[in-house]
Amino acid sequence: MNLWQKYTPELVTDLYEFTMAESYLREGMDAPATFSLFIRSYPRDRAYFVSAGLEHLLELIPRFRFGEESLEYLASLGKFSSSFLHYLENFRFTGTVRAIPEGRLFFTQEPLLEVTAPIIEAQLIETLVINVLQMETLIASKAARCVQAARGRSLIDFSLRRTHGVDAGVKVARASYLAGFDGTSNVLAGKLFHIPVVGTMAHSYIISFPSELDSFYAFERAFPRSTVLLIDTYDTVHGAEKALRVARKMREKGLDLQGVRLDSGDMVQLSREVREIFHQGGFPDVKILVSGSLDEYTIEEMLNAGAEVDVFAVGTRMGVSADAPYFDIAYKLVEYDDRPVLKLSSGKKTWVGRKQVYRNLDEKGRMKGDTVALLQEEPPEGQPLLETVMEGGKPLREAESLKTVRERFQREWASLPEALRQTRPQSSYPVRISASLQQLEEKTAQEKKRTELAPLP
Amino acid sequence: MNLWQKYTPELVTDLYEFTMAESYLREGMDAPATFSLFIRSYPRDRAYFVSAGLEHLLELIPRFRFGEESLEYLASLGKFSSSFLHYLENFRFTGTVRAIPEGRLFFTQEPLLEVTAPIIEAQLIETLVINVLQMETLIASKAARCVQAARGRSLIDFSLRRTHGVDAGVKVARASYLAGFDGTSNVLAGKLFHIPVVGTMAHSYIISFPSELDSFYAFERAFPRSTVLLIDTYDTVHGAEKALRVARKMREKGLDLQGVRLDSGDMVQLSREVREIFHQGGFPDVKILVSGSLDEYTIEEMLNAGAEVDVFAVGTRMGVSADAPYFDIAYKLVEYDDRPVLKLSSGKKTWVGRKQVYRNLDEKGRMKGDTVALLQEEPPEGQPLLETVMEGGKPLREAESLKTVRERFQREWASLPEALRQTRPQSSYPVRISASLQQLEEKTAQEKKRTELAPLP
Fold it and tell me: Which of B193, B208, B404, B435 is the most buried if burial means most Cβ atoms within 10 Å?
């Protein structure tokens, strides 16, 4: 059995979820609690987040059940009471989940998701919720930046080898496709999510043949209708001339060389030389693919400098979100037993209560500002973003296809102001906090300061 | 069925592994090939790498087989010949794997692993090899830095919620334990690898009670022998005074408060005040745990500034190796059909041929330099690092326990020169390339330049 077969959602848990749960049970605390998931701040150069990962979470929550093996392990720790272990035996999540659908844009302070359930249930799924949603949101947000930088050119995910494990690799392929990539090299993700898979050859292939030309001809024999040749193994310009020769031979047989790939060197200069070689040679339609250390910054620089590129194969830096490999995301208790709650820890503000986010568009359909408000207050103007996706622990709708989510992102993206799409945005999106929410926050904080900061009797 | 159950090693593959394989089969290329896995350069402030991930790889390679579902998917792509699909049906890896064992230190240019097998086999496992080994090596190397910075204090992995998916979370817990962490909050990893699991409570727990003191007493009721209290929810100093009161009540019952945790604010100042409160109160043995945005840099700064910390709970920045979220790692063909091969691509040097790394120690048992040499040349001085771990596609030994590997790392670490252990090392470890290897490299490159860079006839 391989390691992945042993992954089971109810143990994707920090131990403290269980110790807290043991105590809640012991104290008879089973009132409804609401937790809010949100991102506190933007990493450098970021101005938006792309919601992703919800479908996986909705698949996993109903499977958050404790079988014999998990119970035996927990019992073996010698920390838990038999009544708690018995409680876990019958555990299932029975709560409500409200969330911003995948493919939508959201901003700091806005809840991406709120869970309302008996406190043990809402608490136990904390680690799973964050692990699943932060990572896919992280990558979709990074990928959207690459797509923007590529200005209409095609992008392909090449990251699998250097993603943080296989779960990450699969999710990167999905999240980047969601955000506008056109395909992936990742065969497993292609199979699981029906993402177009692409790929041709590595340098190892070229050098295993007696000569570069031999390898080109061999590849053409195997894939005459999808020949893309890697041309930088020995020298990119020489490689392009050899590829041109292959293109001519193919034309004699009524075939077309589809493209060439560059993976090293001065990509701006080389891509222009290669374009010229094929243009002069009478093959203006041969596509130029570029790979190697790409991200939104290098893509933008290359295009600004006049690089001739049709397809960007983006790997590691997108697949690990290298410039911002995590978000400051938190899943915080905001209401327990119908009273708003908060902590006062310095520099870590959480908005209390169950909330909704309302989005306002201008006359051209562009996003002009969001309001975060209490769920129960008179709704302010705007379209509510959080939808109820689970009730009584059961999903309220069929799983959404990746196609649906991808199309939603396209529409959403079209409504994002131009200034926020930039690689280095100079402004930030307006997120207003409703007066009622501000008042409740202030009142709750004052009350806590009064009672908790008083000298001990 | 959850997503992880569908992960299967033979599809942890970039598509080009299959297109190359199709062509190799078609061309009748089945000679032995050797691929070398190595890291080209150090990220900033890095001076060593900790080998990790080999056990997982050795488990996965024999499972790299093509069942019906995988074959159907590959057939559905419409790219592959029926003879190739038939070949895959009977595929199994039959080659040799030589590798540096887990827990050992290695350096740039040194092969961490070499695979020798018929070229299709060695090629098809490329993506899997890199994905498995780079990530665990990345984290073990980062974790070792944190352990060094903590100067003998205890460390715990708190990263699961923000690792890149669940596979990463599990592997981070294992890799950090391997490199000297003492436990993890990650229950799944605790179960899979017998790592001690730790954890007490979140802020949500504290704020769900009418008062902080109520929550402290409730926790003590549930876990009287392992009470650790989170004290920064409202105000750290007030929290410490409340915890002191709990400690006194516990003492009356013959119990000991184990510790308190700080998660925000000026950790240096607060940890000193908290220590003073417990010291003055007659509880000098109460441990101080610190968490929140920790890595080797912040740990070092805190200790240099006189922070009073017994345990560091290190999360996100270690779990994603935030300052260096990937290594420049490559799996390169170095020999095919008994001839050395290489590419000439600019800035990406690979040493040709099958190789061994020899390590030399000084009279005090400290590492003083390695030599990378051809496997078949007269061995230079030193202990060879790569061991043959698989032959004929079968592991040559039982799987190593994490305990074994962890102890190996402890011994290895003791032999690393002090200067290289620093958070910001100013020197680098000497890695010499043998004269024979240099000559073969030069000769191979010259020959390739002569034949591949000549004008086309």
Answer: B208
